[in-house]
Amino acid sequence: MTLPLPSVMLVDDHPLFRQGLRMMLLSSNMLQADIHEAGSVTDAVAQEHWVNLVMLDISMPGCDGLEGIGQIRKRWPGAYVVMLSGHDHPELMRDAVRQGASGFISKALEPEAICAQVQHWLLRSLGMEQNIHKASGRSLTPDAKPHAEVLPLRQYEVLKMLAKGFSNKAIAKHFGLSEHTIRNQVASILKHLGADTRTQAVLVAQRNGILPATAIK
Q: Where's the Response regulatory domain (predicted)?
């Protein structure tokens, strides 16, 4: 018996972006998946497909992505919902997570990095996140960059602040956290990226598409 392929739903009101992302994912080395499209949350939830992962634009006319997270979760209770946005501000990211999003991907990332992050979330939705890396540290996809996988949301926010030159004290004040917490987050980021310094971590993130080049000050 052949098992059905995992399914991804792309929800974005811009057909060119949606279709371009679909073609990019189909041509990449990510896990094989059925990829469906919708121009709105209403169109998405009206489709008959069962989906494992929903890639949802954060800003759309009418019912936008943030408002639509609840509808998506009601329609597909077990699916992961990952937001897409051209504006990766920490406030937007926090709002998305508060309303039930699993994660956040910036449209400003390089295509290869977006594909790697979609693969990451698809693996997580299938309960296969422990298999993202083998003992060698390589991705399941042979040509994927070793550090292209997504960071946890909070660490990604902190990394963005590091790229802008903020100190631990300033970052702690921005997020309303202690400096000790931020130091731990920075240490985790350095370990995740295999970097020895903050500057090196930002450069590694830039090189591997986790941060857009414009984020480096």
A: 7-122
Token pair for 111: 């295509």
pLDDT tens digits along 18-68: 999 898 888 876 567 899 999 999 999 999 988 999 999 887 766 666 778
Quote the CA–CA distance of 133 and 138 in Å, as a whole number: 5
Question: pTM (2 decimals)?
Answer: 0.61
3-state secondary structure 70-126: HHHHHHCCCCEEEEEECCCCHHHHHHHHHCCCCEEEECCCCHHHHHHHHHHHHHHHC
In three-state secondary structure terms, 146 is coil
CB atoms within 10 A of CB 98: 10
Q: By the 8 A CB rule, do 60 and 41 touch?
A: yes
In angstroms, rounded to a whole number, what is the distance separating the alpha carbons of residues 162 and 167? 7
Token pair 């997570």 is found at 97
Residue 190 and residue 134: Cα distance in Å, rounded? 20
What whole-number distance in Å separates Cα of residue 51 and Cα of residue 35? Answer: 9
10 membership: H or E segment, kind and range? strand 7-11
Q: Which helix (H) or strand (E) holds 176?
A: none
H-helix segments, the chain: 15-27, 41-45, 65-75, 90-98, 111-125, 153-163, 168-175, 179-193, 198-207
11 — phi, psi (to 5°)?
-120, 110
